[in-house]
Amino acid sequence: MKATEKKTAKLCYEHIGGKLGNLLLEKFVEKGWLAKENLRDKNFYITEKGTKEFSKLGIDLSLIHS
Question: What is the pLDDT of residues 21-47, one digit of tens each?
């Protein structure tokens, strides 16, 4: 891949931000891995399906602190 073809993935504190972070969020919601209790809520929660699917990817959800 040429340097001009590289896409950025912003790291903001301890999370992925920018366009990549937004695209990931949209896809996880679309797949039913993340959801909100109420559309007005600021935060999402990891669904039961999300817990299973993130685990399949090797993501240790026990590292997330509330």
Answer: 899 999 999 999 999 999 898 889 999
Using a CB cutoff of 8 Å and minimum separation of 24, what contacts does 12-21 make?
Answer: none
At 16, list the tokens.
């992925």
Residue 34 three-state SS = strand
Say what the pTM is. 0.77
The SS3 call for residue 35 is: strand
Query: Tokens 């990817």 belong to which residue?
Result: 57
| Beta strand 34-35 pairing with 11-12 | unpaired
32: three-class secondary structure by DSSP: coil
Q: Enumerate the H helices of 1-66 as residue ranges.
A: 18-30, 48-56
The residue behind tokens 């959801």 is: 35
